Please model this.
Amino acid sequence: MVPIGKRTLQPPFALAITGLFLLLLATTMPILTFEVVGRSQSDYMITGVIELWRQGYFLISILVFFAAIAAPAIYLSCVFYVGCVVVLGMKLPAIQWVFNLGRAVNPWNLIPVYSIATLVSVVKLQLLGEVHWEPGARFILAVALISLLCHQISDKQVAVERLEEMGIKITE
Model:
């Protein structure tokens, strides 16, 4: 294990583990409950994607799924995978490919935008009926913050140096 200091990847590794766990909770728990005229409906992250698909907005539904669910999962998984190699010293295959995948998918990690869009939607929906926040909304916010923090404290150069010290050459 590399000691904790200014040039370590332990904090992003820990944040990635936390973020993946929170993302699992965010995708499996309801975000909000919308009640209008005595009819109630609980919505999950995937509900919007499914509804866009049903309405014929196939490309938009794929984009929303990728940016709000898949990209954060891929990014955090890549940070976790690289952390397993760099922080824990594990010998895992395809590290260069995973490292580059994480860098490529990071700009598509739009869960912070999704969380803001959810807030705006709730403000608009309150004009039509009663909206109750559910636990999933808190987990979405937590994933957004963890994801942003993970990106901010991750140092690509330190990761490349640590991997090269282990005999793994990263090319772009």
